[in-house]
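Problem 12. The chain below contains 301 residues. Write out its predicted structure in token notation.
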Amino acid sequence: MRNHSRVTRRMGLKTALAATISVPLSSTALSPAPASADESLSGPLEVMSFNLRFASTAEPNSWNVRRPVMRELLRREGPHLVGTQEGLYQQVRDIESDLGPQYDWIGTGRAGGSRDEFMAIFYDTHRLAPREYDHFWLSDTPNVVGSNTWGGGSIRMVTWVRFRDLLDGDREFYFLNTHLDNASQYARARAATLTTQRIAGLNRSLPLVVTGDFNVAAHKNPVYDTMLGAGLVDTWDTAAERSKLYATFHGYKPLTPDGDRIDWILATPGVRTHRASINTFARNGQFPSDHLPVQASLSLG
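Solution.
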């Protein structure tokens, strides 16, 4: 496993981030015993993509106000996997605490260590065990932490993990999470191309799921065409059942029915999508983020 990147996890987290050092993923420490035969049929894998909106003290919609709503949403839904975007270090730690001890996470700041936003991946340890992970940066120097060479407004990156599904016959799959640039179409296009190249270098016999805020509308941008051209499918389109469609970015304003989906869950064609949904949960008019979480119930094959 490549070990150039700085990684954060709950186990060993404090020392890893305090020193911003590289910590190898220990498959021995992280992998529970194989699931018993009677656990092999566990139901669909519940996946969520969620731009958290970075933690801010500014009102309205400060993190202090939004956090209880975020906690309630995540506990109600109980996803097995959440690909998050924009979370700052303490915000990610807050979510870790709110989800409870059953969950763990992998990620690193865009600028390395605890600095800048995270593409953190949260996972239910009762269902999933990480086997391998890495990060790469969306630039001409993808192995250089914090690199940004395409004129994007911010550093952008991908975090990926190869998981073992403990309750699905130890089936393995890849999970990638990203957040493309909001300012530059050129940077987004280059990022999509690099991401698909990296996907092509993975073990293509394994299923693969991609979550992210792509900052462009599905079906309306070459970035979408590039991702699907790499052999991926849009789980919203392939789902046997769907919720009502809303624009996934709302900016704390009234929701837009039949609006643009800029947050996607993509997968390899063998992955079956039972249901896709855009979650509009709010409490007393307060949304947990300026994006709506996108969810998919998946069978890997």
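Discussion. The first helix runs from residue 13 to 19. Students who got a different answer should revisit the alignment rule from Section 12.3.
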